[in-house]
Amino acid sequence: MSENQNLLAEQRRALILDEVRRRGGIRVNELTRKLSVSDMTIRRDLDALARQGVIEKVHGGAVPVVEASTHEPGFEAKSTLELSAKEDIARAAAAMAVPGSAIALSGGTTTFALARHLLEVPALTVVTNSVRVADVFHDAQRPTAAGGPRAGAATVVLTGGVRTPSDSLVGPVADRAIDSLHFDVLFLGVHGISVEAGLSTPNLAEAETNRRLVRAARRVVVVADHTKWGTVGLSSFAALDEVDSFVTDAGLPDGARQEIEEHLPGLVVAGGSPDA
């Protein structure tokens, strides 16, 4: 029962954060009516989101935190956001992985969700600069009750490097490792994506490592939920015309979809209607 309650709380907080960001602020009494929960439950949710640093509590409600372009949230803070969207994106992106191919996964919570779905794709070689992603495949190699590793468990190449707040490995060691490799598809998580700035991150070293990943890939697939559209980090590392496909969720507004389709050859919107 407690696990179900935790899941419901995570989903509710993701909805609250989306409303705050979309509307620029919201009142407690609006949220109680919209989500059919008590005033005290909403206040606890706002307290939790404020501790994560993604909203600011004000009298009677909450407003979004205006983040500096250099702000980089940690993995744990990001892992509780847009959970259903990330699962939809991961499921759709995993269908793009061809058995027996060499793929790369960058760091991030969406690529972490994708890694779990890729366990079902046989004979992959996975290059990653994400400690969390590598752990997913490493755990799958452990013996099962039947006596052997999971059938879809992949061969993993972890680049090495300096660890960022989002548990990515970056810097000269990672860059040199990536420069010597070539892969069929790069599944790339991003801090922000926009027409003007392209793909961006608040971490300068991560931007350079991501440039190397893009350069080493025959095909680039960006995996990012709708909240990343219009966000701009300190450093751009790729233009939109370097991206082959953008896999996102149904929360992306129609206007943004039209804008993206004008600049990208492949837009995939995963999941159902956000109002469903």
From TrEMBL:
Keywords: DNA-binding, Transcription, Transcription regulation. PANTHER family: AGA OPERON TRANSCRIPTIONAL REPRESSOR-RELATED, HTH-TYPE TRANSCRIPTIONAL REGULATOR SRLR-RELATED. It comes from the Bacteria. SMART domains: DeoRC, HTH_DEOR. It comes from Streptomyces clavifer. This is DeoR/GlpR family transcriptional regulator of sugar metabolism. The keyword Protease does not apply. InterPro entries: Carb_Metab_HTH_regulators, DeoR-like_C, DeoR_HTH, NagB/RpiA_transferase-like, Tscrpt_reg_HTH_DeoR_CS, WH-like_DNA-bd_sf, WH_DNA-bd_sf. Residues 9-64 form the HTH deoR-type domain. Signal peptide: none annotated.
